[in-house]
Amino acid sequence: MNSKILEIENLTVSFDGFKALKQLNFSMDTGELRVVIGPNGAGKTTFLDVITGKVKPTEGRVLFKGRNLRSLSEHQIARFGVGRKFQTPRIYLNLSVRDNLAIAGSRAKSVFSTLWGRASTAERRRIGGLLETIGLATKADGLAGLLSHGEKQRLEIGMLVAQSPDLLLVDEPVAGLTDEETANIGDLLLALAESHSILVIEHDMEFVRQIARQVTVLHEGSVLCEGTIEEVQSDPRVIEVYLGQQSEMPAAAVKEEISAT
Ligand SMILES: Nc1ncnc2c1ncn2[C@@H]1O[C@H](COP(=O)(O)OP(=O)(O)OP(=O)(O)O)[C@@H](O)[C@H]1O
């Protein structure tokens, strides 16, 4: 098996001549939890869009499990094992939490046969396990529409896991959440990281500190630096791009500013 789940080489993406990504190089090991941060407009969303095939490289290539994704459609890439969770939950509000997971986990079947067919013991057990993992076992038979925003985020992460992707792409999972729900999502991602490869894009530095082992900082479409959260937070280039001209502040104060960003 390829030890790199994702390898991105000299990736450039141009929109009408504007380079949203420029000669970007990136790689991630199988089983790794990686967090990508960067100021607004750094190219984070475009980066995910290229991995899922929504946007095609202008130059360079994206290898997933060693295979170049260029000729594959978005749908084929999803089937090949790339799963994405968008910022806003996309769940079935009028179905129960359990049924949302059942539908997500049975891509090959129709919605009808999933809901009214008889689930196998293995399927029921798997959904039961997932409900525990996402902390929604006590709400399994309630309507998804009645969940709090944070619970909906956890459900959608569960739905992503139910599809058994090889790589989970998670886009800003804690935007708009309370501190408690943010910590819950962090714990969930850490638990999932025991057995999954996960790439998270996030702005919330408190959250990044909770979950990150290895952080990649994007700036103007390229990788500015990589390292542990402590390393990137004290890197003068990161301080500069986050705070621009304010970088004459004492280093300790700037670090606090980054933490608060
Ligand atoms: N379809 C497009 N056409 C033209 N320009 C685009 C397009 N998509 C993105 N861009 C530009 O590319 C740059 C990178 O955008 P992107 O959304 O990837 O950044 P981001 O890091 O996700 O930003 P944010 O944190 O604000 O979501 C921005 O300057 C954006 O305006």
UniProtKB/TrEMBL annotation:
Pfam families per UniProt: ABC_tran, BCA_ABC_TP_C
InterPro entries noted in UniProt: ABC_AA/LPS_Transport (IPR051120), ABC_transporter-like_ATP-bd (IPR003439), ABC_transporter-like_CS (IPR017871), ABC_transptr_urea_ATP-bd_UrtD (IPR017781), BCA_ABC_TP_C (IPR032823), P-loop_NTPase (IPR027417)
Listed name of the protein: Urea ABC transporter ATP-binding protein UrtD
Keyword Nucleotide-binding: yes
Gene that this polypeptide is encoded by: urtD
Highest taxon of source: Bacteria
Single GO MF annotation: ATP binding
Domain spans labelled ABC transporter: 6-245
Family annotation (SUPFAM superfamilies): P-loop containing nucleoside triphosphate hydrolases
Keywords in alphabetical order: ATP-binding, Nucleotide-binding, Transport
